[in-house]
Amino acid sequence: HAEGVEIRYYSVIYDAIDDVENALKGMLKPVYEEREIGTAEIRQLFRASAVGLIAGCMVQTGHMRRNAQVRLIRDGKVVAEKATIESLRRGKDDATEVNHGYECGMVLSYPNIEVGDVIEAYELVEVPRDQVKKDSKESGNKGNDK
């Protein structure tokens, strides 16, 4: 350490490159990938003075989870991109999760819902940097050293 500068010695240039790459990866913001957790169709709408509009749904694939990010799809078009499930109930009981094949009631953060709308729930999963790099640099010049 001379004046706050770290000095490292390498016998092979590739070790130095790998070290610099790893140091840079640590400085980058994490990359997130969307992973679908389930879909549900709105079959009926209910009004409740306390919470507003409740969507009576049938979970079609996967599961619905309270506080999950959701996308609202109407006639094949995305109507709301980043809504959340604010409340989830199975019958009269609060639920954390409702699996496919079951009916549930939910209140979304997006109020403009209609019968027939599809609710697509997803989660954001952090993707390791080395997996991101492989995808974007696949056609890089590995092996074309000058």
List descriptors:
single chain; 146 residues; alpha+beta; Elongation Factor Tu (Ef-tu), domain 3; protein biosynthesis; initiation factor; TIF_IF2_dom3_sf; Translation initiation factor IF-2
Provide the CATH superfamily of the domain at 32-126. Answer: Translation factors
What's the alpha carbon Rg, rounded to whole Å?
A: 24 Å
Largest sheet, spatial ordering of strands: 1-2-7-4-3-8
Strand-residue proportion: over 45%
By CATH, the topology of the domain at 32-126 is: Elongation Factor Tu (Ef-tu), domain 3
Protein model, in words:
This protein is α+β, with helices and mostly antiparallel strands. The chain has a domain at 32-126: Elongation Factor Tu (Ef-tu), domain 3 (Beta Barrel), CATH 2.40.30. The chain contains two helices and eight strands; from the N terminus they run αββββββββα. It has helices at residues 13-27, 129-136; strands spanning 31-48, 52-65, 69-74, 77-90, 93-94, 97-99, 103-108, 118-127. The chain has a six-stranded antiparallel β-barrel. A hairpin with a 2-residue loop joins strand 3 and strand 4. The longest helix is centred in the N-terminal third of the chain and has 15 residues, at 13-27. It is elongated and about 70 Å long. The relative contact order is 0.22.
